[in-house]
Specification:
With 406 residues, the chain is α+β, with helices and mostly antiparallel strands. The protein contains twelve helices and 17 strands. β13 and β14 form a beta hairpin. The structure holds adenosine-5'-triphosphate (ATP) and magnesium ion (2 copies).
Length: 406
């Protein structure tokens, strides 16, 4: 896993390169949210052309992409048309039409990561089956089709029981907890019923949530970013601390599990591996994202190669960059929508105003046209000499008195 850095060869022919030595390739990204936006920002630094496919006019990536094509990443025709203009296709969201990607691959279109990877990841149940087969430690899980099977699962795994929707989940929308057998029906209804396609997981008694970003090049070389701690608020990633404050043994186990999980998937790019650390030092895999991830936003300021640059390097076939940290510590704080509409914007602007006064703080605002409660609107990254100092600075950012801080 700690693959040697810098030993890879560029495998492209000389005439594939532009005058500055970087490949003349158009990277097509399915999805134009904040991840697409930050990918475009990294691309512009290296003059790599990124075009994005997203149905929303004014989507976060539209202002920074080489071009924004308006269309749906779940629509066969839109993807096929889009693909004609790209040398390589990649994703910033896993909920894309995997059938179309598979079809395109058969016709020789280059998709990174591969359609098979997207297909496995976008169905969380299939994902769990896949990783279990590859010997990755996971919370126990089983499919449920009706109240009977849900009750049986409850007896087997105990309560609280985590009920999850197989598809289209993000930010915890798709998760529901039943604290007792009596709560099963309402927890299932909250997810839209059994027809939605549900499964259950044994509740993981974690003491910390960790995450590892793993990068894989087209030559299958693998590099891992430092293990981070993710802190969730109501199922949504809220704070990320890098590096995670855990023992060397836990760091190494988390990195090994993450590498092993990603080695079982096909294609190039960065992947995020979300993990649970239990009280007895076990590492269990929660889920994998086949793309840059919220737990890797800190890398923009804190690592030699950001996850976004790394993803581009990987998909176009450049050597992977150094994933190690260039600052001793980093904290990422998500700016989540506090309120609908104008009030929400005012609260966010107040926080940004404070962040701008804090040493080592960088503000990212995704420019989403609408504010919604709990929506990821932006983030602030703090870098500095120690985690203790950064925690104090985060407290300053979040305390009301800090408005007077100069
Ligand atoms: P995202 O894709 O935004 O990370 P998601 O909607 O796919 O989120 P999950 O990652 O499955 O949702 O779960 C969200 C959070 O819920 C986890 O980060 C964790 O805090 C909690 N959680 C999920 N599964 C379990 C489990 N089996 N036991 C205990 N807590 C869990
Ligand atoms: Mg998820
Ligand atoms: Mg998750």
């Amino acid at each position: 896993c700690e693959a040697s850095f810098g030993s890879q060869e560029i495998s492209l022919r000389r005439d594939d390169f532009q005058s500055h030595g970087l490949p003349e390739m158009v990277v097509g990204v399915l999805g134009g949210g904040q991840l697409g936006r930050m990918m475009c920002q990294a691309a512009s630094q290296m003059a790599i052309k990124v075009i994005v496919l997203d149905p929303l006019e004014g989507c976060p990536a539209s202002a920074v992409a080489h071009e924004h094509v308006i269309g749906s990443f779940t629509d066969n025709d839109a993807i096929e048309e889009f693909a004609k203009r790209c040398d390589v296709l990649t994703v910033e969201i896993e909920h894309v039409d995997a059938d179309t990607l598979e079809k395109l691959e058969k016709r020789g279109v280059d998709c990174e990561p591969k359609a098979s990877t997207i297909r496995i990841i976008q169905d969380k149940y299939l994902q769990k089956v896949h990783f279990a087969r590859h010997g990755i430690p996971l919370p126990e899980f089983t499919q449920i089709d009706d109240l009977e099977s849900a009750k049986r699962a409850g007896e087997l795994f105990g309560y609280p029981l985590m009920i999850k929707s197989k598809r289209l989940a993000y930010d915890g929308r798709g998760n529901s907890v039943a604290k007792s057998p009596e709560e099963l029906s309402s927890a299932v209804s909250a997810l839209g019923g059994y027809d939605r396609g549900l499964y259950v997981e044994k509740y993981a008694p974690f003491i910390k949530e960790l995450a590892v970003i793993v990068a894989r090049g087209r030559d299958s070389s693998i590099l891992c970013y430092p293990v981070v701690e993710t802190i969730h608020k109501e199922n949504i990633c809220h704070i990320v601390k890098a590096p995670a404050y855990v023992s060397w043994k836990v760091r190494s186990l988390a990195t090994d599990v993450a590498c092993k999980a990603i080695s079982s998937l096909e294609g190039a790019g960065v992947f995020a591996v979300e993990l649970f650390l239990t009280g007895d030092g076990q590492i269990l895999l929660n889920e994998v994202a086949p793309r840059p991830h919220n737990s890797g936003h800190h890398t923009i300021e804190s690592c030699f190669t950001s996850q976004f640059e790394q993803h581009l390097r990987a998909v176009v076939g450049l050597p992977l960059g150094d994933p190690s940290m260039k600052t001793p510590a980093a904290i990422m704080y998500n700016l989540l929508g506090e309120d609908e509409g104008e009030d929400g914007f005012q609260l966010a602007h107040k926080l940004i105003g404070r962040a701008l006064r804090i040493p080592g703080a960088s503000v990212h605002w995704y420019d989403k046209p609408e504010m919604r409660k709990q929506r990821k609107m932006g983030h602030v990254t703090l870098v500095g000499p120690s985690m203790g100092i950064l925690e104090a600075r985060l407290n300053t950012l979040l305390s009301d008195e800090s408005l007077d801080f100069h």
